[in-house]
Write a structure and sequence with these properties.
By secondary structure, this protein is an alpha/beta fold. Helices cover 43% and strands 14% of the residues. The chain has helices at 3-13, 26-31, 38-47, 59-68, 84-87, 91-100, 114-117, 129-133, 148-158, 177-186, 200-204, 212-221, 235-242, 269-278, 287-303; strands at residues 16-21, 34-36, 52-56, 73-75, 105-109, 122-124, 142-145, 163-164, 192-194, 208-209, 226-230, 247-249. A 4-stranded parallel beta sheet has the order 2-1-3-4, sandwiched between helices. The structure holds 1,3-dihydroxyacetonephosphate and iron/sulfur cluster (SF4).
């Protein structure tokens, strides 16, 4: 089966668009109409005039698209594509945490369920987190969740004392200082570009810390020719396409030559084709929940213009 051709036909016939996160397999990135980071996917989902959005990423990205575009059909290739970070923050436990810290503004990373977003004042992604936190007074009491490493990084660069939920991404937590240091020795001129979901000890030995989009932009502007890229290795596909004369190195992690998110990689061309053909699985969100969850997401989009 020529999946690429079949998907293109179905897409046209159904006025559908395909969105893909940078952590998708190269084959999926290459058939997508939009490839971007979490922020860009939310922004595109909010303004598309397609009838169907196929979200190739993980479940919370499909939910965010549906919340922002409730009249569209939002399809995901595999409903098992979850997120360990979103799973590390159950809504009932987060609600108790909020109760324990009265009068705090609640800032949540987009990697959360709709139920957690409904408890949130403003959503952020790794691209805009620092800028949005900076819109609040320096001494404002803030709860930041669920990614401890991202919150800890923002606290360290802003001198804030946000109260942090202790959640983590199992992919970014896998990188080790020993491996990054060994690569630095091997490629002494290569800057280390790190996603803020990584542990503090990794951030401390990095030359640049930023979201997937920020890392991509940094590599384009930098005079260096080789880069050590400390995030999910899917981003290297886009980096190599965008800057073919530069070299990008993905650190190995225990048991694997590069670090892939097993959830992100559940999506395949065959599943994209099938979900478009059957218009299933579809993201369905309770209307009352969606009405609560949309507010902090729209607030984020307004603050990111
Ligand atoms: P960004 O897309 O904001 O860089 O976040 C990375 C991520 O872990 C998405 O799941
Ligand atoms: Fe979640 Fe981490 Fe996978 Fe991103 S890379 S989807 S944060 S588990």
């Amino acid at each position: 089966m020529d999946w690429v051709k079949k998907i293109a036909e179905l897409k046209k016939q159904k006025n559908a668009i395909i969105m893909a996160h940078y952590y998708q397999d190269a084959a999926i990135q290459d058939i997508a109409d939009y490839v971007g980071d979490s922020l860009a996917l939310a922004q595109w989902a909010a303004k598309t005039d397609a009838d169907i959005i196929v979200m190739c990423g993980v479940h919370f990205m499909g939910e965010t698209a549906k919340i922002l575009s409730p009249s569209k059909k939002v399809l995901v290739p595999d409903t098992a594509a979850g997120c360990s970070l979103a799973d590390s923050c159950p809504a009932d436990e987060f609600a108790s945490f909020i109760k324990q810290h009265p009068n705090h503004t609640v800032i949540s990373y987009v990697n959360t369920t709709a139920a957690v977003k409904a408890l949130t004042d403003v959503v952020v992604t790794s691209t805009n987190a620092k800028a949005i936190v900076d819109t609040f007074p320096k001494d404002a009491p803030i709860i930041f969740g669920p990614d401890y490493n991202l919150g800890n990084y923002i606290n360290s660069v802003t001198g804030r004392k946000m109260v942090l939920w202790k959640g983590a991404c199992h992919v970014h937590e896998k990188f080790t200082v020993d491996r990054i240091k060994a690569l630095k020795e091997q490629y002494p001129d290569a800057p280390v570009l790190t996603h803020p979901e990584c542990k503090q000890e990794i951030v401390e030995i990095s030359d640049y810390v930023g979201s997937t989009q920020a890392i991509l932009n940094y590599a384009g502007k930098s005079d260096a020719s080789t880069f050590i890229v400390v995030t999910e290795s899917g981003i290297l596909h886009k980096m190599r396409q965008a800057y073919p004369t530069k070299t990008f190195i993905a650190p190995s992690v225990e048991g694997a030559a590069c670090n892939e998110c097993n959830y992100m990689r559940l999506n395949t061309l065959e599943k994209v084709y099938n979900c478009l053909l059957n218009e299933s699985p579809q993201i369905i969100i309770d209307e009352e929940l969606a009405q609560k969850a949309v507010k902090p997401i729209v607030r984020m989009l307004d603050l990111s213009k």
